[in-house]
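As practice, study what follows.
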Amino acid sequence: MQKDTAIYMEDIFKGEWVWEAAEGFGCVVKVTKHIHHEVTPYQTIDIYDTDKVGRLLTLNGIIQLTEFDEFAYQEMMAHTVLMGCRNPERVLVIGGGDGGVLREIAKHPEVKKIDICEIDEAMVRAAKKYLPSLAVGYEDERVTLYIEDGSKFIEKYNGYYDCIIVDSTDPGGVGDPLFGEDFYRNMRKALRDGGVIGSQSESPFLLPEVVKQLQKFTGKFFDYTAYGMFYVPTYPMGQIGICIGGVGVDATCVQRPMSDNLQRQLRYYNPEIHEACFKLPEFVKNMLKKSE
Protein backbone atom coordinates (compact mmCIF):
# COMPACT_ATOMS: atom_id res chain seq x y z
CA MET A 1 0.00 0.00 0.00
CA GLN A 2 1.37 3.43 -0.90
CA LYS A 3 2.42 5.75 1.91
CA ASP A 4 -0.24 8.36 1.07
CA THR A 5 -3.09 5.83 1.37
CA ALA A 6 -1.87 3.88 4.40
CA ILE A 7 -2.22 4.72 8.09
CA TYR A 8 1.08 4.38 9.93
CA MET A 9 1.50 4.40 13.70
CA GLU A 10 4.05 7.21 13.49
CA ASP A 11 1.38 9.38 11.80
CA ILE A 12 -1.07 8.64 14.61
CA PHE A 13 1.50 9.55 17.23
CA LYS A 14 2.31 12.79 15.35
CA GLY A 15 -1.34 13.78 15.72
CA GLU A 16 -2.30 13.49 12.06
CA TRP A 17 -5.07 11.03 12.92
CA VAL A 18 -7.66 10.86 15.67
CA TRP A 19 -8.28 7.30 16.72
CA GLU A 20 -10.87 5.67 18.93
CA ALA A 21 -10.62 2.12 20.23
CA ALA A 22 -13.03 0.20 22.46
CA GLU A 23 -14.20 -3.39 22.95
CA GLY A 24 -11.52 -4.64 20.55
CA PHE A 25 -12.57 -2.39 17.66
CA GLY A 26 -11.49 1.04 16.48
CA CYS A 27 -11.89 3.92 14.06
CA VAL A 28 -9.37 6.44 12.72
CA VAL A 29 -10.02 9.81 11.10
CA LYS A 30 -7.41 12.06 9.49
CA VAL A 31 -7.39 15.52 11.04
CA THR A 32 -6.00 18.82 9.81
CA LYS A 33 -6.29 20.95 12.96
CA HIS A 34 -7.10 20.53 16.65
CA ILE A 35 -9.33 23.55 17.24
CA HIS A 36 -10.70 23.03 20.75
CA HIS A 37 -9.58 21.19 23.89
CA GLU A 38 -11.29 21.59 27.25
CA VAL A 39 -11.30 19.55 30.43
CA THR A 40 -14.52 20.11 32.39
CA PRO A 41 -15.71 18.64 35.70
CA TYR A 42 -17.59 16.04 33.64
CA GLN A 43 -15.54 15.18 30.57
CA THR A 44 -12.82 16.14 28.11
CA ILE A 45 -14.12 17.93 25.00
CA ASP A 46 -12.09 17.97 21.78
CA ILE A 47 -13.08 19.33 18.37
CA TYR A 48 -11.04 18.88 15.20
CA ASP A 49 -11.07 19.96 11.59
CA THR A 50 -10.61 16.89 9.42
CA ASP A 51 -9.50 15.97 5.95
CA LYS A 52 -12.75 14.32 4.80
CA VAL A 53 -15.58 14.50 7.34
CA GLY A 54 -15.76 18.17 8.35
CA ARG A 55 -15.63 19.01 12.05
CA LEU A 56 -15.34 16.10 14.47
CA LEU A 57 -16.33 16.07 18.16
CA THR A 58 -14.94 13.66 20.73
CA LEU A 59 -15.82 13.34 24.41
CA ASN A 60 -13.21 11.55 26.50
CA GLY A 61 -11.63 10.44 23.22
CA ILE A 62 -14.83 8.80 21.92
CA ILE A 63 -16.21 10.05 18.59
CA GLN A 64 -19.62 11.66 19.11
CA LEU A 65 -20.26 13.14 15.68
CA THR A 66 -18.82 14.42 12.44
CA GLU A 67 -20.39 17.01 10.15
CA PHE A 68 -20.22 14.42 7.36
CA ASP A 69 -22.83 12.02 8.77
CA GLU A 70 -24.35 13.58 11.90
CA PHE A 71 -27.64 14.09 10.06
CA ALA A 72 -28.31 10.34 10.09
CA TYR A 73 -28.10 10.14 13.87
CA GLN A 74 -29.95 13.38 14.66
CA GLU A 75 -32.80 12.67 12.24
CA MET A 76 -33.40 9.12 13.40
CA MET A 77 -33.24 10.02 17.09
CA ALA A 78 -35.67 12.93 16.69
CA HIS A 79 -38.14 12.02 13.96
CA THR A 80 -38.57 8.36 14.87
CA VAL A 81 -39.79 9.47 18.30
CA LEU A 82 -41.89 12.43 17.16
CA MET A 83 -43.49 10.64 14.22
CA GLY A 84 -44.21 7.68 16.50
CA CYS A 85 -46.25 10.00 18.73
CA ARG A 86 -49.74 11.17 17.79
CA ASN A 87 -49.53 14.58 19.45
CA PRO A 88 -45.96 15.67 20.29
CA GLU A 89 -46.59 19.05 21.92
CA ARG A 90 -44.10 18.89 24.82
CA VAL A 91 -40.67 17.40 24.10
CA LEU A 92 -37.69 16.86 26.39
CA VAL A 93 -34.12 16.13 25.28
CA ILE A 94 -31.73 14.73 27.88
CA GLY A 95 -28.11 15.17 26.86
CA GLY A 96 -27.66 16.30 23.28
CA GLY A 97 -25.65 19.39 24.20
CA ASP A 98 -24.43 19.85 20.61
CA GLY A 99 -27.97 20.91 19.62
CA GLY A 100 -28.44 18.58 16.65
CA VAL A 101 -31.50 16.80 18.01
CA LEU A 102 -33.01 20.19 18.89
CA ARG A 103 -32.48 21.29 15.29
CA GLU A 104 -34.52 18.34 14.07
CA ILE A 105 -37.32 18.68 16.64
CA ALA A 106 -37.74 22.33 15.66
CA LYS A 107 -38.79 21.21 12.16
CA HIS A 108 -42.13 20.05 13.64
CA PRO A 109 -44.48 23.06 13.88
CA GLU A 110 -46.94 21.16 16.10
CA VAL A 111 -44.36 21.02 18.93
CA LYS A 112 -45.12 23.80 21.40
CA LYS A 113 -42.40 23.35 24.01
CA ILE A 114 -38.85 21.97 23.70
CA ASP A 115 -36.83 21.48 26.90
CA ILE A 116 -33.23 20.27 26.93
CA CYS A 117 -31.37 19.11 30.02
CA GLU A 118 -27.60 18.98 29.51
CA ILE A 119 -25.24 18.41 32.43
CA ASP A 120 -22.20 20.20 30.96
CA GLU A 121 -22.61 23.86 30.03
CA ALA A 122 -19.15 23.80 28.41
CA MET A 123 -20.48 21.40 25.77
CA VAL A 124 -23.20 23.88 24.84
CA ARG A 125 -20.71 26.75 24.60
CA ALA A 126 -18.31 24.72 22.47
CA ALA A 127 -21.07 23.64 20.09
CA LYS A 128 -22.31 27.20 19.62
CA LYS A 129 -18.77 28.36 18.77
CA TYR A 130 -17.45 25.46 16.69
CA LEU A 131 -20.49 23.44 15.51
CA PRO A 132 -23.01 26.10 14.47
CA SER A 133 -24.78 23.83 11.97
CA LEU A 134 -25.92 21.73 14.94
CA ALA A 135 -26.17 24.40 17.63
CA VAL A 136 -28.65 26.32 15.47
CA GLY A 137 -31.20 24.20 17.33
CA TYR A 138 -30.81 26.46 20.36
CA GLU A 139 -32.06 29.46 18.39
CA ASP A 140 -35.68 28.23 18.25
CA GLU A 141 -37.86 30.29 20.60
CA ARG A 142 -39.57 27.14 21.92
CA VAL A 143 -36.29 25.87 23.42
CA THR A 144 -35.49 26.16 27.15
CA LEU A 145 -32.06 24.98 28.30
CA TYR A 146 -31.50 23.49 31.77
CA ILE A 147 -27.95 22.79 32.97
CA GLU A 148 -28.63 19.86 35.28
CA ASP A 149 -28.16 16.14 35.75
CA GLY A 150 -30.82 14.58 33.52
CA SER A 151 -31.34 11.62 35.84
CA LYS A 152 -32.33 14.06 38.61
CA PHE A 153 -34.20 16.50 36.36
CA ILE A 154 -36.66 13.84 35.19
CA GLU A 155 -37.72 13.10 38.78
CA LYS A 156 -39.51 16.47 38.95
CA TYR A 157 -42.15 15.62 36.35
CA ASN A 158 -45.28 13.50 36.41
CA GLY A 159 -47.43 13.03 33.30
CA TYR A 160 -46.00 16.13 31.61
CA TYR A 161 -44.07 15.32 28.42
CA ASP A 162 -45.28 13.77 25.18
CA CYS A 163 -41.81 12.78 23.99
CA ILE A 164 -38.46 12.24 25.72
CA ILE A 165 -35.30 11.77 23.66
CA VAL A 166 -32.14 10.58 25.45
CA ASP A 167 -29.09 11.65 23.42
CA SER A 168 -26.52 10.27 25.84
CA THR A 169 -22.83 9.55 25.75
CA ASP A 170 -21.72 5.94 26.08
CA PRO A 171 -22.00 4.13 29.43
CA GLY A 172 -18.97 4.24 31.69
CA GLY A 173 -18.81 8.00 32.24
CA VAL A 174 -21.02 10.96 32.97
CA GLY A 175 -23.89 9.29 31.12
CA ASP A 176 -23.95 6.20 33.35
CA PRO A 177 -27.16 7.09 35.28
CA LEU A 178 -29.01 7.36 31.95
CA PHE A 179 -28.52 3.62 31.44
CA GLY A 180 -30.11 2.64 34.77
CA GLU A 181 -33.47 1.12 35.66
CA ASP A 182 -34.52 4.02 37.91
CA PHE A 183 -34.06 6.46 35.05
CA TYR A 184 -36.38 4.45 32.79
CA ARG A 185 -38.93 4.20 35.58
CA ASN A 186 -38.85 7.99 36.00
CA MET A 187 -39.15 8.60 32.26
CA ARG A 188 -42.30 6.48 32.20
CA LYS A 189 -43.71 8.53 35.08
CA ALA A 190 -42.89 11.80 33.30
CA LEU A 191 -44.88 10.90 30.15
CA ARG A 192 -48.49 11.68 29.36
CA ASP A 193 -50.75 9.00 27.90
CA GLY A 194 -49.73 8.43 24.31
CA GLY A 195 -46.17 9.48 25.11
CA VAL A 196 -43.01 8.05 23.53
CA ILE A 197 -39.37 7.78 24.62
CA GLY A 198 -36.34 7.07 22.49
CA SER A 199 -32.84 6.55 23.81
CA GLN A 200 -29.39 6.12 22.28
CA SER A 201 -28.92 2.38 22.71
CA GLU A 202 -25.55 1.39 21.24
CA SER A 203 -24.76 -1.34 18.73
CA PRO A 204 -25.51 -5.06 19.15
CA PHE A 205 -22.17 -5.74 17.44
CA LEU A 206 -20.18 -3.66 19.93
CA LEU A 207 -22.15 -3.54 23.20
CA PRO A 208 -24.80 -6.29 23.12
CA GLU A 209 -25.19 -6.34 26.91
CA VAL A 210 -26.19 -2.67 26.92
CA VAL A 211 -28.74 -3.27 24.18
CA LYS A 212 -30.26 -6.17 26.14
CA GLN A 213 -30.32 -4.17 29.36
CA LEU A 214 -32.14 -1.18 27.85
CA GLN A 215 -34.66 -3.40 26.11
CA LYS A 216 -35.30 -5.10 29.44
CA PHE A 217 -35.99 -1.74 31.11
CA THR A 218 -38.29 -0.47 28.38
CA GLY A 219 -40.14 -3.78 28.39
CA LYS A 220 -40.68 -3.45 32.12
CA PHE A 221 -42.12 0.08 32.10
CA PHE A 222 -43.69 0.68 28.67
CA ASP A 223 -46.66 -0.83 26.85
CA TYR A 224 -44.88 -1.09 23.50
CA THR A 225 -41.11 -1.39 23.12
CA ALA A 226 -38.63 -2.08 20.34
CA TYR A 227 -34.99 -1.72 19.32
CA GLY A 228 -34.12 -0.15 15.97
CA MET A 229 -30.86 0.01 14.00
CA PHE A 230 -29.54 2.64 11.60
CA TYR A 231 -26.30 3.62 9.89
CA VAL A 232 -23.74 6.21 11.03
CA PRO A 233 -20.49 5.49 9.14
CA THR A 234 -18.02 7.19 11.50
CA TYR A 235 -19.10 5.21 14.57
CA PRO A 236 -16.83 2.18 15.15
CA MET A 237 -19.38 -0.37 13.89
CA GLY A 238 -20.90 2.01 11.33
CA GLN A 239 -24.20 1.50 13.10
CA ILE A 240 -26.06 2.62 16.23
CA GLY A 241 -29.40 1.86 17.82
CA ILE A 242 -32.47 3.46 19.33
CA CYS A 243 -34.53 1.91 22.11
CA ILE A 244 -38.12 3.10 21.88
CA GLY A 245 -41.01 2.83 24.31
CA GLY A 246 -44.63 3.96 24.08
CA VAL A 247 -47.43 4.53 26.57
CA GLY A 248 -50.52 3.17 24.82
CA VAL A 249 -48.95 3.68 21.40
CA ASP A 250 -46.80 1.51 19.15
CA ALA A 251 -44.13 3.99 18.08
CA THR A 252 -42.55 1.56 15.64
CA CYS A 253 -45.39 2.62 13.32
CA VAL A 254 -45.69 6.14 11.93
CA GLN A 255 -48.64 7.64 13.80
CA ARG A 256 -49.53 10.67 11.67
CA PRO A 257 -49.08 11.99 8.15
CA MET A 258 -45.69 13.45 7.29
CA SER A 259 -45.82 16.73 5.42
CA ASP A 260 -43.99 17.23 2.13
CA ASN A 261 -42.37 20.30 3.66
CA LEU A 262 -40.81 18.27 6.47
CA GLN A 263 -39.64 15.49 4.17
CA ARG A 264 -37.89 18.01 1.90
CA GLN A 265 -35.78 19.13 4.88
CA LEU A 266 -34.48 15.62 5.65
CA ARG A 267 -31.63 13.55 4.24
CA TYR A 268 -31.99 10.21 6.05
CA TYR A 269 -35.35 9.78 7.77
CA ASN A 270 -38.55 8.90 5.93
CA PRO A 271 -41.63 6.89 6.99
CA GLU A 272 -40.31 3.76 5.28
CA ILE A 273 -36.97 3.82 7.14
CA HIS A 274 -38.86 4.53 10.38
CA GLU A 275 -40.66 1.21 10.24
CA ALA A 276 -37.84 -0.69 8.52
CA CYS A 277 -35.25 0.11 11.22
CA PHE A 278 -37.17 -2.10 13.65
CA LYS A 279 -36.90 -5.13 11.32
CA LEU A 280 -33.90 -6.76 12.95
CA PRO A 281 -31.27 -9.29 11.86
CA GLU A 282 -31.91 -12.78 13.18
CA PHE A 283 -29.04 -12.71 15.68
CA VAL A 284 -30.39 -9.50 17.24
CA LYS A 285 -33.93 -10.89 17.45
CA ASN A 286 -32.60 -14.00 19.16
CA MET A 287 -30.38 -11.96 21.48
CA LEU A 288 -33.28 -9.81 22.63
CA LYS A 289 -35.64 -12.78 22.93
CA LYS A 290 -33.21 -14.46 25.33
CA SER A 291 -33.00 -11.33 27.45
CA GLU A 292 -36.76 -11.07 28.00
About this structure: The first strand starts at residue 17 and ends at 22.
